[in-house]
Amino acid sequence: MYRACGSFSETYTDDMSLIRTRMQWLLLIAGLIALLLPPVVLPLDWLRFMTITGITIIAVLGLQILVGISGQVSVGQSAFMGIGGYFAAVAATKLQLPFPAALAIGAFGAAGVGVIFGLPAARIKGFYLALTTLAAQFVFEFSVVRLPDEWFGGAAGIPVAPPVIFGHRIDDTVSFYFFVLPFVIAATFVALFILRSRVGRAFIAVRDNDLAAEVTGIPVTRYKVLAFGVASFFAGLAGALLAYENRLVHFEQFTLFQSIWFLGMLIVGGMGSILGAVLGTIALRLVQESLTIVGPQLATYLPGSRLDIAFPMVNVVLGATIILFLVYQPRGLAHLYRKAERFFRLWPFPH
Fold it and tell me: What is the pTM (predicted TM-score) of this model?
């Protein structure tokens, strides 16, 4: 973060603080106020889009901690998201627990399963670790369908009643937007604090060189497993919120393609950056939603008016977007943001 000439930090705490100037406080307050305006200016369809995007941001933030910050490979984030959704749904419907308890069970339950699948990280890495997390995706889908229907609803899924907070039933688009918003803000700040904490520095050391990190006294295995637990906690929280938002949890909501798009959001936003996780999620979600709207209209101009290619068109464009970023902007949108910020702070001076 750039500061005026002659303004410098005198303590480590001041140097590591997220907000250090009056202008930053004003921008933060203005941003929080702006988040209160969408229900007033946007139609309900786009408001629900923002709600789903916020939930996705929570899951991608967890994946950023695992992949971008700690350097572990995972293609099963959607599975852990589904585990959190199913655990929360079972707690709410079968055990009749209130919403806060069901949400906690979903988040911590997914974290526990994530730790189990993260144990192989102590001995394997790279492609083989990716296969392990890929196995989590298939085990999740296989188990949910074939376990007794009384457990997880089988192929029909589990209906979830709207949450009730202090006697108020959250059952419409506007109220659910305001309900999800604090979780998104809290998850973002928690991810920032993890990155700038002792744990975050250990994650970065393990990512850069796990052998050197172990020589310096960092328990590498513990931090690798912890990274899986933290990432799965974020995913479980997102899955539980999505279950309540959709009022249904179903295994088809948490597919392998979804896990791959989560990785694509990190690539577009920028690996190792919390801001990158947020920007990448918003960017790809906007592209996906826009193509979903205009895709059928564009398909009518193709020979034969093949309306069935609208969905493949979305995947092709998203895949091409990820490839273009890998080739021409591998540091992602976060790097572009920092370049623009540096330019406006220094303009009109060249240095």
Answer: 0.90
